[in-house]
Design goal:
Blueprint: E1 40-42, E2 107-110, E3 116-121, E4 128-135, H1 149-159, H2 162-165, E5 173-178, E6 183-190, E7 192-194, E8 203-205, H3 207-216, H4 224-241, H5 244-256, H6 271-276, H7 279-289, E9 295-301, H8 305-316, H9 321-326, H10 330-343, H11 347-350, E10 364-365, E11 409-414, E12 417-428, E13 434-442, H12 450-473, E14 484-492, E15 497-506, H13 511-528, H14 532-552, H15 558-571, H16 578-591, H17 594-604, H18 606-609, E16 618-619, E17 622-629, H19 641-652, H20 671-680, E18 685-687, E19 707-711, E20 716-721, E21 728-736, H21 740-744, H22 751-761, H23 770-779, E22 783-788, E23 792-800, H24 815-827, H25 835-854, H26 856-868, H27 880-884, H28 888-896, E24 905-910, H29 914-925, E25 953-959, E26 965-973, H30 986-993, H31 1000-1007, H32 1011-1034, E27 1041-1045, E28 1054-1062, H33 1067-1080, H34 1089-1106, H35 1110-1117, H36 1131-1134, H37 1136-1142, H38 1145-1154, E29 1164-1171, E30 1175-1176, E31 1190-1191, E32 1193-1194
Parallel strand pairs: 1-2, 3-9, 12-17, 20-24, 25-29, 30-31
Antiparallel strand pairs: 2-3, 4-6, 4-9, 5-6, 7-8, 10-16, 11-12, 12-32, 13-15, 13-17, 14-15, 18-19, 19-20, 21-23, 21-24, 22-23, 26-28, 26-29, 27-28
Helix pairs in contact: 1-4, 1-7, 3-8, 12-13, 12-14, 12-16, 12-17, 13-17, 13-19, 14-16, 22-25, 22-28, 24-29, 25-26, 30-31, 30-38, 32-33, 32-34, 32-38
Length: 1204
């Protein structure tokens, strides 16, 4: 069970390349639309959705054999309100809106009892489906005495389901989550389960099992034993989620929604209440909200629609809302009725039943402003017409009065033109950097017409241009203004509004500069809009992105389709197929002018431009939340509410100049360059060779499922065609060595990692500046990522395989060719090593290290790894003193020493013609001359993990305002291919220890190169299941415990790690329980055949699912031809499924014995705890501390609304 993250946005830091946000077609929240569908099964006879029909004799069905609550004298549920809007929104056939086409495969329906459903056939991955049951009730629906009960009810309802347990071991994934506005239960399953009977060849369909499990939560038994288990799990989860990142989000959300109940109803709830609830309390909440008219079922996958509808009617048709209402006491019915009546005044009843029951202070133009006014029905009212405190404006004894302690600040040139900013400052000792979060809220505008869609396209173009300007233009210099910045507009069904946002991070001492640059860039866009070249570039990129999505069609994964569908329906947008969206995008682009974009840019940026003295103010506040580290330094630029508002106001009044046009290259390498390179270094192919026993591959033949060979300059090449991601590709280059090479080559500690980051922060090649190269990547939808780990220096390229970035119909290169041009520039030494790039890299590592030391999990794992490896610097974070002494020349020498072509391997996978791609690889990379020497050859003896110290138990304590704890258990293990540090292999050990009873087939299996890889994958799954059932379920010590192996390939040996979160009081006991759980696998509770079969299904299903990713294909091919990686080769790809199927229990027992887990004598452990000794909380600047303790937090209470 998981508590849905409170993150408002997906944060992506674009460095050397920026990926244009997807076209408003498939994954853009602001671009979905819907029109009437012929594929609708409406089982109630009405023109408009009317709940009263669900409870009267007029309710009838053309297809359903089950009808409940149909008698007029049956009491209605107290939440019943007539003429409620349909949960299907624009998919409701009785309410046609707009003129955009609906996805032709979508089928919707409503059963007589009110259950609504949406079915979307989708073919990828084949033979699988997903079902999501959405309950329109979350933490925002909780009453004062129920804070946290929505989440606890979710746990009790699903974890108490006997039918859910029938999904175990079937290759299914099932879980649930709770948020402000809804609770969702889901199951992702195979279409059928093969028969286990040798006498039957039939298979068992999984749809009935999945829907059985989901329908059972609607009739949940609330039993005391299950309640106590889930109460313990939720209390443990409360500790687990209470990271500093979570507390920051709580402060952001409580300020953003100060005027409504979202500020006081976080899903995790209140600890004292969670401890107090009885079965009757949970049952009351369940019977109030888990009623048929308050849910929507989504089914997406490789399904037959008619069969699916039949199963839906069978499993859900029997449910009764009136029955639930009848189980409520009179007092409960009165509470439910009062709340339901008050909800009618909120966005939930007025816009979408998917929204939380809140009202917002929307930002909108004043009467003096020329644009459209706010719809009167969406104006903010603190209380309902009947006086119900629906927005929780009255002070409650459980309110956290330390939040929202700052008043709004108004300013302006006159009384008639007053601007309003709502500031909040949250400071904490665990924060390392300054962050600013600016927000305004507007009503969601459903996209149901071509004009709506056209406006959304213009907005995407504006946002792309602004984001690129901020990334490219404002990141230069030794000390960049920000470490991260993102500007966005999202339609948030979770919060029931459109949110415009600016999120930035910077060093604290440069916060004013960061704010000024961000505000001025937004003002510039609002005043001058975009340039003509930007209009052409981003229009072209948007069309290319839309074309890629259209080409994927039903190959888009079920989960992605379902997330898009849920968000689309929630916001009332039209739901289109990728091809329909592409056609509509094309139609919109044909008539879109730069003047249209100008108008959208003005509206998009008015939340900033309106702050200038010479512009009209907006009604409604700009919300400004700054999160800062605690500093003892008294300075003029301290970030307090007054200084923050003044910084924003000052920047809004500064003059700005129009953005200059920039020449962006269409290609980085000319045909003449390649002809000369071919002449100087002719390129040809040679056979590939491997260490897993596979014969050399031919140099001139295409082989399936991948082609593996080498270039004459020594570069190893692997290529595979996959249509899983239409018109998408992934290229990966690995250079053996990584941080292990630092010791081998007598390099300074951290120089390889720092050098890789400096390359990422740079980007100038030859005659092209960094700005030109970054914009080239933007135009080509190309993303580049450079990293360094313990073993490898890695270069990852994500690109479209078709022609992109064409302007005015001029033919250009494909994304594949663009990626190879960047790769050529790097490998041929054309990269410019820039001093300011090194400065930014150093800043990144310094900030990362300091944040790690302030983080409970980070400091505990650091202590554990340092203790295990005797402080080997290659396996722990790079300290600041080491970073500072490294020079640019040292970074350059270290990284370039690893880029010898004869040591490298390239893997490329995607939707392309393999012959064409291999020719491009030969032409671009085969013509690079090889080095005369190899400093870190892949053929040199492989590295190994250091000799481990004597097993020990460690403890870490960090100062924090909130009590938290985490425990780790670790030990030595083999690497990915089964090799221990001493060079022995688990397969060889299994053959030796297998005994005389081993068959010839047993020996062959254990000698297979994949034996160690598969064994560790299966063991990991089994241990994780055991930890869940033992440490969480039986002993109730934690919310979550997980196990994983490191995946070293070239390094001999590795580590395993168990992570368990618990309260400070239970951390020691939880750690011991984890040790006992893995020890029992060789003692009192050995692996069973059922354990193995269940693990096999999980491992195979995960593998088959990941095969839908081009990155996974590239990762699989990486290392297959590296001599230093023993047992690696084509067999690891071709034989994976067969090897998983072939395993028997004894194989795993033999491997487990080799790990030395018996008795726990070889295990390390570390417990991390926070300490609150001698602290003072909430001391403001200039105040005297009462006890002289350390100030840890300002602007937010201990627990940040999590505890009383």
């Amino acid at each position: 069970m998981q508590l849905l993250s409170l993150s408002l946005f997906t944060l992506v830091l674009c460095t050397s390349a920026f990926h244009l946000p997807p076209t408003p077609s498939l994954f853009t929240k602001t671009s979905l639309v819907t029109s009437p569908s012929s594929n609708t099964r409406l089982y109630i006879n009405n023109n408009d959705f009317n709940l009263k029909n669900l409870f009267s004799k007029s309710s009838s069905s053309s297809s359903s054999s089950s009808s409940t609550s149909s008698l007029e004298d049956t009491p209605l549920h107290p939440a019943f309100r007539p003429n409620r809007i349909s949960v299907l929104n624009s998919l409701n056939p009785a309410s046609p809106t707009g003129n955009l086409p609906i996805h032709p495969s979508t089928v919707t329906g409503t059963l007589p009892n009110g259950i609504s459903y949406i079915i979307l056939p989708n073919s990828s991955p084949a033979a699988r489906f997903e079902c999501h049951l959405q309950i329109f009730s979350g933490s925002a629906d909780e009453l004062e005495h129920q804070q946290g009960i929505a989440h606890l009810t979710e746990h009790v309802a699903y974890m108490g389901s006997r039918k859910r347990e029938r999904l175990f071991g079937t290759g299914s994934q099932t879980n649930a989550y709770t948020d402000f506005h809804h609770t969702v239960f889901y199951a992702a399953c195979p279409i059928s389960l093969p028969s286990t009977s040798s006498s039957s060849s039939s298979s068992q369909p999984m749809m009935p099992l999945a829907l059985d499990a989901l329908s059972e939560v609607m009739e949940a038994r609330v039993e005391s034993g299950r309640l106590e288990k889930e109460r313990a799990a939720v209390l443990s989860e409360m500790t687990m989620v209470n990271t500093i990142e979570y507390r920051v989000e709580c402060n952001i959300l409580s300020t953003l929604h100060r005027e409504n109940r979202l500020a006081k109803r976080f899903p995790i709830g209140k600890e004292e209440l969670i401890k107090s609830w009885t079965c009757e309390d949970v049952r009351e909440f369940h019977r109030t909200h888990y009623r048929p008219d308050n849910v929507l079922l989504y089914v997406v996958g490789d399904v037959n629609v008619r069969d699916t509808e039949r199963v839906i009617r069978e499993k859900f048709g029997k449910l009764s809302g009136s029955k639930h209402g009848g189980e409520l006491t009179e007092e409960a019915q009165k509470r439910v009725s009062d709340l339901s009546e008050a909800v009618q005044s909120t966005v939930k009843a007025k816009q979408s039943w998917h929204y939380p029951p809140v009202s917002h202070e929307f930002v909108h133009p004043t009467t003096q402003h020329p644009t459209t006014q706010l719809d009167p029905k969406l104006e903010y009212h603190e209380k309902s017409p009947a006086g119900y405190d629906i927005n929780l404006r009255d002070v409650s004894p459980r309110d956290d009065l330390t939040l929202n302690i700052y008043d709004d600040i108004t300013f302006g040139p006159s009384e008639e033109n007053q601007k309003r900013i709502r500031p909040h400052i949250y400071s904490h000792n665990l924060l390392q950097s300054f962050s600013l979060h600016l927000f305004t809220k507007k009503p969601v505008k459903p996209i149901v017409s071509l004009e709506d869609f056209k406006k959304s396209v213009a907005r995407r173009i504006c946002l792309a241009a602004l984001q690129i300007r901020l990334n490219v233009n404002a990141r230069g210099g030794d000390t960049p203004a920000f470490n991260f910045i993102e500007v966005n507009v999202v339609d948030s069904s979770r919060e029931g509004c459109e949110i415009s946002s600016v999120d930035l991070m910077s060093e604290y001492d440069t916060w004013e500069e960061a704010v000024s640059i961000a505000v001025r860039e937004i003002k510039k866009l609002g005043k001058y809009s975009i340039t003509k070249s930007e209009f052409l570039r981003y229009s072209s990129s948007l069309m290319s992105d839309s074309a890629q999505l259209a080409s994927q069609g039903e190959n888009i994964a079920h989960g992605d389709q379902l997330s898009y569908l849920m968000e689309t329906v929630s916001n009332g947008h039209t739901f289109m197929s990728p091809m329909q969206a592409y056609e509509i995008t094309n139609e919109a682009m044909e008539s879109l002018t730069i003047e249209d974009v100008d108008e959208v840019a003005k509206e998009l940026c008015e939340f900033v431009t309106s702050l200038a003295d010479d512009d009209n103010a907006l009604d409604g506040p700009l919300i400004a939340i700054a999160c800062t580290p605690i500093t003892k330094t008294k300075s003029a630029n301290v970030c307090n509410p007054e200084n923050l508002v003044e910084a924003i106001r000052t920047a809004a009044n500064l003059p700005v100049e129009k953005e200059a046009e920039m020449e962006v290259p269409q290609s980085l390498t000319t045909a003449e360059d390649l002809q000369l390179a071919e002449k100087l270094c002719p390129a040809s192919w040679v056979p590939g060779s491997f260490t897993d026993g596979t014969p050399d591959t031919p140099k001139d033949k295409i082989t399936a499922p991948m082609t593996l060979r080498r270039l004459s300059n020594g570069l190893r090449v692997g290529a595979a065609t996959t249509t899983a991601e239409s018109q998408r590709g992934h290229l990966k280059i690995i250079a053996p060595g990584g941080r292990m090479a630092e010791k081998q080559l007598n390099l300074k500690n951290g120089v390889m990692a720092l050098g890789a980051r400096a390359m990422q922060e740079g980007g100038a090649f030859g005659k092209f500046s960094r700005n030109q190269v970054e914009l080239f990547c933007v135009d080509k939808l190309l993303m580049v990522e450079i990293n360094c780990n313990e073993e490898f220096l890695t270069f990852d390229f994500v690109f479209p395989t078709n022609e992109v970035g064409s302007i005015n119909g001029i033919k250009t290169i494909t994304g594949t060719e663009a990626a190879l041009q960047i790769a050529r520039a790097i490998l041929s030494g054309d990269l410019t090593w820039e001093p300011d790039a090194l400065s930014r890299a150093k800043q990144h590592f310094t900030s990362t290290h300091e944040s790690l030391m302030k983080n409970l999990e980070g400091s505990a794992t650091e202590k554990l790894m340092a203790g295990m490896t005797n402080n080997d610097p290659r396996f722990i974070s790079i300290c600041n003193s080491d970073v500072e002494q490294i020079t640019l020349e040292e970074c350059k020498d270290a990284c370039t020493s690893q880029l010898n072509l004869q040591d490298l391997e390239l893997a490329i996978a995607g939707d392309f013609d393999i012959n064409e791609v291999l020719e491009l690889v030969r032409k671009y990379l085969g013509t690079i001359p090889s080095s005369s020497s190899s400093s870190s050859s892949s053929s040199t003896p492989s590295h190994k993990i250091p000799t481990l110290a004597k097993p020990s138990d460690f403890e870490v304590e960090i100062t924090d305002s909130d009590p938290r704890a985490v425990a780790y258990v670790a030990g030595a293990s083999p690497n990915k291919w089964g090799f221990f540090a001493d060079g022995t292999n688990v397969g060889e050990i299994a053959v030796e220890k297998g005994g005389k009873g081993a068959t010839k087939f047993d020996t062959q299996r254990r000698n297979h190169p994949l034996f160690g890889n598969v064994a560790l994958s299966l063991i990991s799954e089994i241990i994780n299941r055991r930890l869940f059932s033992t440490v969480r379920e039986k002993k109730q010590l934690t919310y979550d415990a997980n196990f994983h192996f490191t995946s070293f390939e070239q390094i001999k040996g590795g580590f395993f790690l168990i992570t368990v979160t618990a309260s400070k009081e239970k951390a020691q006991e939880a750690m011991k329980a984890c040790k006992l759980t893995i020890s029992d696998l060789l003692g009192s509770s050995p692996i069973t055949g059922d354990n193995l079969e269940s693990a096999k299904r999980v491992v195979k299903n995960r593998h088959e699912g990941e095969l839908q990713s081009t990155r996974y294909w590239a990762d699989m091919m990486s290392g297959l031809q590296i001599e230093g990686i023993e047992k690696s080769g084509p067999l690891s790809v071709t034989d994976f499924g067969a090897m998983v199927d072939a395993f028997v229990v004894k194989d795993l027992l033999l491997v487990l014995n080799s790990l030395g887990l018996d008795g726990g004598k070889n295990l390390f452990s570390c417990i991390g705890r926070t300490s609150q000794a001698g602290l003072e909380v909430g001391v403001e600047e200039g105040e005297e501390g009462g006890g002289g303790g350390e100030v840890l937090v300002r602007g937010g209470r201990v627990g940040t609304s999590l505890r009383d």
